[in-house]
Design a protein that fits this description.
binds (4-amino-2-methylpyrimidin-5-yl)methyl dihydrogen phosphate, 235 residues, alpha/beta, 8 strands, binds adenosine-5'-diphosphate
């Protein structure tokens, strides 16, 4: 139905600190004027310093959430993901195989950071050119489009991400590197923004470019809360 208000879904873990995971997704989707629905798969005890504890929810209650949503909503775009930056791995090792073999081939877009991309491809990223090879290797796993996020590539003045599209075309998105440790939730925020834009019917390339601009603003426009969440009000 074309006159339905745009609705999106995030399948995510809860972050008690409110800055990453499901909460970052909800804040971002709301800011893009899209109705957010969510399937909670895990609960984490977390703040902007790190993850202190995590509990995966039983499959039955996860299935029940999907069933409830299917009975009521017209979801146009959905996202998932729960591997944190900085070595705090929120996904069991066996689950990485499932992501690689079963989930990735279903995705319109995958948006790994470099540690995630390395875990999925076995390739190391030391310079920007490596991100091109990693993008190509990821696309062979089956997702249509790939966004390789370069935030973890140190020693440069820029934060550059590489995008490889379904038709084989590619482009870089580069923004000035903001000198801060306050980047908790950036991965969730960029992918939630892309999801929200897709739910509105925006084309994929434009959705990705809008999301890069939004995440940059959320890092730049700091708020004094804890040790540093993003500012999801930034525009
Ligand atoms: N210090 C920074 N300044 C500006 N942009 C950044 C910075 N760190 C990360 N980004 C951007 O934020 C997004 C997420 O980055 P990244 O750190 O690679 O992924 P993740 O948050 O999943 O670990 C990317 O678009 C990246 O370019
Ligand atoms: C529940 C949950 N999900 C995902 C992340 C990833 O965080 P980031 O976007 O900073 O990599 C997180 N820290 N917690």
């Amino acid at each position: 139905m074309t006159n339905e208000f745009p609705q999106a879904l995030t399948i995510a873990g809860s972050d008690s600190g409110g800055g990453a995971g499901m909460q970052a997704d909800l804040k971002t989707i709301q800011m893009r004027h899209v109705f957010a629905t969510m399937v909670v798969v895990a609960v984490t005890a977390q703040n902007t310093l790190g993850v202190q504890d995590a509990l995966a929810l039983p499959t039955e209650i996860i299935d029940a959430q999907f069933a409830s949503l299917a009975d009521d909503f017209k979801i146009r775009a959905a996202k998932t993901g729960m591997i944190a930056k900085g070595g705090a791995k929120l996904l069991a090792d066996e689950a990485i195989t499932t992501v690689k073999e079963e989930l990735s081939p279903l995705a319109t877009l995958v948006t790994p950071n470099l540690p995630e991309a390395e875990a999925l491809t076995g390739l190391k990223a030391e310079r920007p050119a490596d991100m091109v090879k990693i993008g190509q290797a990821l696309q062979k796993l089956g997702p249509k489009n790939v966004l390789v996020k370069g935030g973890h590539l140190g020693g440069d003045q820029a934060a550059s991400d590489f995008v490889l599209m379904e038709d084989g075309t590619s482009f870089w998105m580069t923004s000035p590197r903001i000198d801060t440790v306050r980047t908790h939730g950036t991965g969730d925020t960029i992918s939630a923004c892309i999801t929200a834009e897709l739910a509105k019917g925006v084309g994929l390339e434009q959705a990705i470019r809008t999301a890069k601009g939004y995440v940059e603003a959320t890092i730049r426009d700091t708020i004094q809360v804890g040790h540093g969440p993003l500012n999801h009000w930034a525009l």
